[in-house]
Amino acid sequence: MAWAVLAAVIAVVAVVFVARPFLRDPTPASDRLDELAPEARHRLALAEERDRALAALKELEFDHRTGKVSDVDYRAQVGPLRRRAAAALRALEHGEQAEHERIPDQGERVP
Known about the structure:
It is a single chain. By secondary structure, the protein is mainly alpha-helical. It has helices at 2-23, 38-66, 71-102. Helix 2 packs antiparallel against helix 3. The termini are far apart.
């Protein structure tokens, strides 16, 4: 009989211990889902610029192949679009390299 009571008490304590994180009321720092850090906002803007430039290039290529855009107009428009896409890609790549430089390796100490 004593063993049954002891087992029941241990079971109740175990259930309360395991359920404790689920019973607490979470208090988030912010409820806004669209709130981004300035670095994340900048990276998002660069990614959107890259996507817009690549989409414009794709559309220009399609229009040129279908004959909607002449060779002269194509040559005039393709260079600036390529430069715009390349600049956005370089900026994104530079940001990723900077992030990797800030994160120390596992064995490395942070000053």
